[in-house]
Specification:
Structural class: alpha/beta
CATH topology of the largest domain: Glycerol-3-phosphate (1)-acyltransferase
Number of helices: 11
CATH superfamily of the largest domain: Glycerol-3-phosphate (1)-acyltransferase
Number of strands: 11
Shape: elongated
Number of domains: 2
Distance between the termini: 59 Å
Strand content: 15-25%
Strand order of the largest sheet: 1-7-6-2-5-3-4
CATH class of the largest domain: Alpha Beta
């Protein structure tokens, strides 16, 4: 009854496009490994199949009177990163036993809801669950969920008005993988599924520079990007800095259609890529760790000068 109510509510609030539903086994156990984008992720997956799915959820959520009762009725498996290794192992073993008994278990391998929409690192819990299990792993990807009420956008989860109802999302179920698949292998497949799901988005034919310009114009003060060096930019600052890079690149490479970029994963690299794209040229990102010499003698100097340039441009933008 509870699952039926969830099914009705979700299909009222969301317009779900399901890809690869046939990959969910009609019978027998399996482990669903999914990216984590919002508080509604469990309900979205429940609304895609008639099979009962046991989700692994934080033990702290069971302490809430309402959620604890709901999760118990839906047979969720409690787990918490604050538990002792012994209790964590017991939770993983319980999940594996349910799979061996022919049930479906779902785990959000990132361990937390993404704050940026990007795929986070997958934790090792998946491998521990499948250690003594002979059942398939089904990779799952949730697309376009970020931006909905229950996702983290605008520095909050719930304090926002729905942009539309029903809210369109795409849920992809990948082909079954071996129970011996590693965390990195499953994450790679989930990432590829995210790229494949992009084709189902409206306006997918709009070029990246135009899409970025539209977003910057619509939300100039909204957070856009940050890196480990602490350079945090809004859309307005990102656009200003990208235009500055774009003009500099145009002066030095007026006739080239493809521009090589050899920078670490950083705000600087992102700005350079956007700047090249704004020129209608193709950025080609090179492996900046190709040699010890390139890292020690070239890239650190390039990155330091790029970082200084970003700060100078941003200060001018603020003024």
């Amino acid at each position: 009854m509870v699952r039926f109510v969830i099914f009705l509510i979700i299909h009222t609030l969301y317009k779900i496009k399901i890809i690869g539903k046939e990959n969910i086994p009609a019978a027998g156990g399996a482990l669903l490994v999914c990216n984590h984008v919002s508080f509604a992720d469990r309900c979205l997956i429940i609304a895609c199949t008639r099979r009962v799915i046991r989700f692994m959820s934080l033990r702290s959520l069971f302490e809430n009177k309402f959620l604890g009762l709901l999760f118990s009725i839906m047979k969720f498996i409690p787990i918490a990163d604050t538990d002792s290794p012994k209790k964590l192992l017991e939770s993983f073993t319980e999940a594996g036993d349910h799979i061996n008994d022919g049930e479906i278990v779902c785990i959000f391998a990132e361990g937390a809801i993404t704050r940026t929409g990007n795929l986070l690192r997958f934790e090792k819990g998946m491998e521990r669950i499948m250690k003594k299990v002979n059942a398939p792993i089904i990779p799952v990807h949730l697309d376009r969920v970020r931006g909905s009420i229950f996702s983290f956008e605008g520095e909050t989860f719930f304090n926002k008005i729905p942009s539309r109802i029903p809210y369109p999302v795409t849920i992809s179920f990948g082909k079954p993988m071996s129970p011996e698949s590693s965390v990195s292998e499953v994450r790679a497949v989930v990432s590829e599924m995210g790229a494949d799901a992009y084709q189902f988005r409206p306006g997918k034919d709009i070029h990246l520079p135009l899409r970025f310009y539209s977003q910057a114009k619509k939300h100039p003060n909204r957070f856009c990007m940050v890196d480990s060096r602490g350079s945090e930019l809004s859309y307005a600052k990102t656009f200003i800095a990208s235009m500055a890079f774009s003009r500099a690149i145009k002066r030095h490479c007026p006739e080239d259609d493809m521009i090589g970029v050899m920078l670490p994963n950083s705000v600087g690299a992102g700005l350079v890529n956007i700047g090249i794209s704004l020129l209608g040229k193709c950025p080609v990102n090179l492996n900046f760790t190709a040699s010890e010499e390139s890292v020690d003698n070239v890239n650190l100097k390039v990155w330091d000068s790029t970082y200084f340039f970003i700060q100078r441009i941003c200060r001018k933008g603020e003024n």
